[in-house]
């Protein structure tokens, strides 16, 4: 054992309180993002008395690590006084919070190294699990309680700042969308509806995620946009690197004015590419290039952020019970109002300052996220 490290088992104990009253409220799951989420499990005919009660300040983890992308689902309950979790989950708590802060322990669990450790220590013939015995064998540095509080406070300060910037960006995006709606409402009576395909020069799905643009964990100089990046509005700097040949890169490289649209998972989520970047996109996305002789990319982008567009896309979701893949033809059949280039320019001149502010906030969020990662990385050296 490294100097200054202790076995986690000295500080934690299992908790197994069953839901004897049969409550049905606040049924929770645990994600690999290390958060509690509202459960979407089918509970018809479920015996809720078998569920475990987890209380604020307690942890829950899913021992099975084999089907979660090499990550372990574990979380600290902070947002509710109590919740219910499946009886196959493990609930535990810190024995003495004056010796080990639950929030400090959660930071340790949040490290990518802990995910790798949990997978390495998982075992089983049918499914691989990290059982309670292995959890107790986890080694971690336990500095004095005041140092733990300082570390937790520093991390929380950054987290709160990120949340503030994200809220500001949400407000700016709402303002931009309001500007678009107001702009179109003054033109709608004199404009005919046209298909999106009428103003698109090209529309293509991206490179095969396994064969053409596989993700790697080292710097190749080329990043790859994936569905999760677009769905979560991640900026270019936080995308993963990929391997791509010169011919693949030339075919799928992203340039200023491109619009990316998700065609799998959550359909119709868009992202605007403001400048040329060293990146490609995979086959979970559609890349639109606007024909700039009769439309401006930024105008089209905001037209695809409206509730009208999303309602059109959702018609595909409701038309099938299986997970849909949006076809390019369906996307291009969407109808919208296309004013003159001069009128579109008026709108884009108005909205660009808002988008620039969003971009600056995203730059700060990325730097703050890097600081968070540094804090997590340095935990092991304390």
UniProtKB/TrEMBL annotation:
UniProt-recorded Gene Ontology molecular function terms: DNA binding; endonuclease activity
SUPFAM superfamilies linked: DNA methylase specificity domain (SSF116734)
Domain Type I restriction modification DNA specificity residue range list: 40-172, 191-367
Pfam families referenced in this protein's UniProt entry, alphabetically: Methylase_S
InterPro entries recorded: Restrct_endonuc_typeI_TRD, Restrct_endonuc_typeI_TRD_sf, Type-I_RS_S_subunit
Gene3D superfamilies (UniProt xref): DNA methylase specificity domains
Keywords: DNA-binding, Endonuclease, Hydrolase, Nuclease, Restriction system
Any single GO BP term: DNA restriction-modification system
Family recorded in the similarity comment: Belongs to the type-I restriction system S methylase family.
Name used for this protein in its record: Restriction endonuclease subunit S
Source species: Holdemanella biformis
